[in-house]
Write a structure and sequence with these properties.
About 35% of the residues lie in helices and about 20% in strands. It is an alpha+beta fold. It has a single domain, classed as Aspartate Aminotransferase, domain 1, CATH 3.90.1150. It has a six-stranded antiparallel sheet, covered by helices on one side. β5 and β6 form a beta hairpin.
């Protein structure tokens, strides 16, 4: 099964404080939390892709395991992966990658914002 644009949008917006903005034009959805980007996608793009923030060591592992995961397109390739949503990367893994990207951003926000977001990782990152 391949993730659809609507499913991708829903997966990105399911987190507290997540919002979809269009700072690069109407064709590019930018998903932010606390004013910081955690996902970017041209939801009308063919093929569908999403760029996600990732821990550098994990980014390299994912790229080695899945040909559909490459260094972030037009982004810092050390910290960003671009995932081709062609069905070769399981949707569950894409969902985990979206959550990890969100968590990376929120973990760097001030504690006040983390509390306001009711962030589940707060107890882990104390």
């Amino acid at each position: 099964m391949t993730m659809t644009p609507d499913q991708l949008r829903a997966a990105c917006l399911e987190f507290n404080g997540a919002e979809e903005l269009f700072p690069f034009g109407p064709e590019t959805s930018v998903f932010k939390v606390g004013g910081k980007i955690f996902a970017i996608s041209a939801l009308d793009g063919e093929p569908l892709r999403v760029s996600l923030k990732c821990e550098p060591e994990i980014a390299v592992q994912l790229r080695a395991a899945y040909p559909a995961i490459t260094g972030g397109w037009h982004l810092n390739k050390r910290h960003w992966n671009t995932v081709l949503l062609d069905g070769s990367v399981p949707d569950a893994l894409v969902g985990e990658m979206i959550e990890d990207s969100y968590d990376l951003i929120v973990s760097r926000l001030p504690r006040r914002q983390q509390l306001a977001l009711d962030w589940s990782g707060l107890s882990v990152h104390r």
